[in-house]
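Extended Data, panel c. Modelled sequence:
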Amino acid sequence: MIRFAALFIGLFAAFSSPAFAQGKALKKIRVGVPSITVANIIIFVAKEAKLFEKYGLDAEVIVVQGSGIASKAMIGGSLDIAPVATPTVIGAALSGSDLMILAHTMPSVVHALVVKPEIKRPEDLKGKKIGVSSFGSLTDFLVRHIMKKKGLNPDRDATLIQIGGDNERLAALVQGTADAAALSYPGYARAQKLGFPMLWDSSKEVHYPWMEIVTRRATVQRDREMVLSYMRAHLEGIALFKRDRGFGRKVIRQTLKLDDNELVRESYQLFSKSFIPAPYPNVKGMKTSFEYVAMNRADVWNHKPEDFVDASFVEELDKSGFIRKLYEK
């Protein structure tokens, strides 16, 4: 009897879902995740809460190592949408790709460089190995940009090595194969608990709007409705994460395989306040990215930030009242 009831409930849920009600099969979409961190948690919130299905999507979440690889996968047609660092998007577009930013979902980075205890000052990084996720990624950009700001040459004074996600970079630090590592939260908090001090807090060193939502112009031209459905799911995921503390913490715990309740609690508190309800592309905040790209591509100054973004999706969801209704519940 219990099994029959469960089956009935499952069938009822399936038949009453928006996708079924509209008489449409779920549309496949491949969503890239450059690293398993709290910064990327909204994708996992939307997956766990079945928000993709709610908006007619069958989302395959694919983890890659860094936004540099994510951008190449998108350009090559292996991914449809992913968070990709703004300088990577700009650089790729200048080289002929059609990547564009649909949203910046956080106002600034939550990132730091943690180091071996003997490294006390930025100049102590000379001759050292610094772990980043991959070349062209956010971690690569932050380390290079901040090193230059502090008078160091990242190509000459240190060796940047591609290691992978936060867990792999922290392990490299512990094992001694890296002398420093660029980590997001809670990665850098875990490193500090293990005795590795923070050399710098990236959010205090660089003004950089974060957690982009990026796709290709060709994808939008081919299926704008699919991209809009993704944006609905993602923005509802932000609202759910901000509104439901218990659910948000649960997703953090299971996604990051984090059993430290204090770090789970602090992660939720930090990021739930940071995600932006109406995440328009932050064109004013792209100045830092322009300056960084200009070091190798001076022709970036022939463009405006608006050339690399498409704000129409957030604008449509904002003006239609969709976003406002998410916060009325």
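The chain has two domains: 2-108+208-326, 111-205. This feature is highlighted in the accompanying rendering.
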